[in-house]
User: Which sequence fits this backbone?
């Protein structure tokens, strides 16, 4: 039996602990959203993540994969971890005062269909029905090891992301700029269409303000002004990424951060038969970089390299 409006109101009051204070859609399937928690915003580092959640009782965006909910699950909260993003610039085009903010920004794409029967996307179809002023569940803990801890002031830093994998890089970029980083900084964002570059204008403004920063918008399905119609792997193989950096791309002086599509990242796994590290069949960025002397972080041995990564699914 479906929940009554009274029951839904009671569940929202009991389970939700944050308010949507700003929501902007780049288009129907892509948005930035700011959530103000009811509690003091937890201490955190750029690059980390926390959870967002909505109840199974909330409506879903039209045109998304149909979902069947068991009666026993109707009152449950659906949660997912999201990396925190950052507007980078404030209203007067100065670096945003993130240390004074009482909200957290997220960069989210609508997953319309998982392509699997009986496994419809649960959370994003509900998130995209939110409006400013609506309530939501936000995790009280912010965590994650994908941070700038290993970066020295004069190191060169390269951020390589796909889609909304740009989110933590935006916050990390803001951190580098606000602390006066002196090394070169390049951020590349690879998307399908130009309309999927929601932060493009901000990055263009940052390039005008900071001589050591370069933004590379990459599109795979259309060529838009100022973008390159290539994949991130192509940028590395051709030497274009190093040319855009402007100095030699060496592991002694450069840290590379990867976030987004696991196929782009290409994390090697240990072969159970031989014990050797084995790269995925599709050539990823880690394989290309390790061939020229870089080494990826190894969570099993807690060894830090100069390639750091965060997979999005």
Assistant:
């Amino acid at each position: 039996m479906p929940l009554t409006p009274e029951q839904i109101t009671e569940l929202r009051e009991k389970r939700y602990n944050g308010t949507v204070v700003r929501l902007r859609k780049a288009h129907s399937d892509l948005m930035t959203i700011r959530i103000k928690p009811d509690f003091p915003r937890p201490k955190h580092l750029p690059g980390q993540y926390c959870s967002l959640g909505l109840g199974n009782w909330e409506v879903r965006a039209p045109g998304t994969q149909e979902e069947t909910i068991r009666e026993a699950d109707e009152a449950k909260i659906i949660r997912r971890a999201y990396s925190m993003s950052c507007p980078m610039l404030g209203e007067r085009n100065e670096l945003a005062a993130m240390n004074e903010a009482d909200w957290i920004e997220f960069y989210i794409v609508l997953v319309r269909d998982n392509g699997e029967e009986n496994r419809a996307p649960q959370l994003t179809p509900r998130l995209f029905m939110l409006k400013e002023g609506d309530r939501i569940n936000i995790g009280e803990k912010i965590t994650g090891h994908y941070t700038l801890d290993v970066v020295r002031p004069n190191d060169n830093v390269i951020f390589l992301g796909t889609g909304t994998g740009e989110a933590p890089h935006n916050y990390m970029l803001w951190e580098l700029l606000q602390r006066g980083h002196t090394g070169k900084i390049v951020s590349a964002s690879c998307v399908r269409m130009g309309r999927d570059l929601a932060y493009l204008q901000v990055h263009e403004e940052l390039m005008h303000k900071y001589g050591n920063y370069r933004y590379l918008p990459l599109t795979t399905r259309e060529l838009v002004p100022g973008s390159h119609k290539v994949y991130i792997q192509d940028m590395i193989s051709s030497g274009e990424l190093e040319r855009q950096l402007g100095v030699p791309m060496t592991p002694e002086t450069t840290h590379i951060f990867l976030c987004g599509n696991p196929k782009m990242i290409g994390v090697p796994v240990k072969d159970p038969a031989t014990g050797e590290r084995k790269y995925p069949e599709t050539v990823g960025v880690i394989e290309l970089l390790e061939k020229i002397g870089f080494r990826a972080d190894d969570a099993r041995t807690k060894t830090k390299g100069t390639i750091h990564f965060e997979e999005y699914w």
Q: What stands out?
A: The radius of gyration is 20 Å. The first helix runs from residue 5 to 15.
